[in-house]
């Protein structure tokens, strides 16, 4: 069940990220073409630059949780590498994960508050609420908490346990 939930969330996150990224790149290319390679009568969309910048917020916040899954975030592990005992290293990793969870809880809460306060604010050139873009903050933080939950429950190598668990079961059923 945990594997199924994780796979569904992972698929949804990846689909949303790829869709936003394709839209952002396409809009950016269209803006460049309209700005430099068309007649004077055709101009780039006034709202294009705003949308590209704000869609980047979604890609960044969704990508942070992928970085947690891949264990690829920048970390200063100067002191952690000096810990010789495996048990002490696990305790230190656990403490760091708990601190990260607390930080992401604060970010999720404050991001939610910030999103709610911007419901009536609109983009300058198009009537879209800023809340749609700032919702990336609490959503991204919740996805990070989701990743840390699996990490604490299943260990640092939870990705292989969760994502590849279904693959082995499918092979056995054939």
Describe the structure.
The protein is elongated. The longest helix is centred in the first third of the chain and has 35 residues, at 2-36. The chain is an all-alpha fold and 174 residues long. Helix 1 (2-36) runs antiparallel to helix 2 (48-70). It has one domain. It has helices at 2-36, 48-70, 86-117, 131-134, 136-154, 158-163, 165-173. Helix content is 74%, strand content 0%. The two termini are 20 Å apart. Mean pLDDT is 85; it is low at 168-174.
Uncertain regions spanning at least 5 consecutive residues: 168-174
What is the N-to-C succession of helices and strands? HHHHHHH
Structural class: mainly alpha
Q: How many structural units, i.e. domains?
A: 1
- What's the alpha carbon Rg, rounded to whole Å? 21 Å
Mind sketching the topology for me?
Elements: H1 2-36, H2 48-70, H3 86-117, H4 131-134, H5 136-154, H6 158-163, H7 165-173
Helix pairs in contact: 1-2, 2-5, 3-5
In short, what is this structure?
The chain is mainly α and about 170 residues long. The protein has helices spanning about 1-35, 50-70, 85-115, 130-135, 135-155, 160-165, 165-174.
């Amino acid at each position: 069940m945990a594997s199924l939930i994780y796979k569904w969330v992972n698929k949804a996150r990846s689909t949303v990220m790829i869709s936003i990224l394709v839209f952002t790149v396409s809009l950016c290319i269209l803006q460049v073409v309209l700005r430099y390679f068309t007649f004077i009568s055709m101009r780039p969309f006034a709202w294009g630059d705003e949308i590209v910048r704000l869609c980047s917020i979604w890609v960044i916040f969704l990508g942070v949780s992928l970085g947690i899954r891949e264990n690829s975030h920048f970390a200063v592990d100067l002191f952690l590498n000096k810990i010789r005992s495996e048990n002490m290293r696990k305790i230190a990793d656990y403490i760091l994960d708990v601190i990260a969870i607390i930080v992401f809880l604060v970010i999720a809460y404050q991001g939610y508050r910030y999103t709610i306060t911007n419901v009536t604010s609109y983009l300058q050139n198009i009537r879209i609420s800023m809340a749609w873009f700032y919702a990336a903050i609490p959503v991204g933080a919740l996805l990070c908490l989701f990743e840390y939950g699996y990490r604490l429950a299943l260990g640092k190598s939870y990705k292989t346990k969760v994502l590849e668990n279904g693959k082995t079961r499918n092979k056995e059923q054939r």
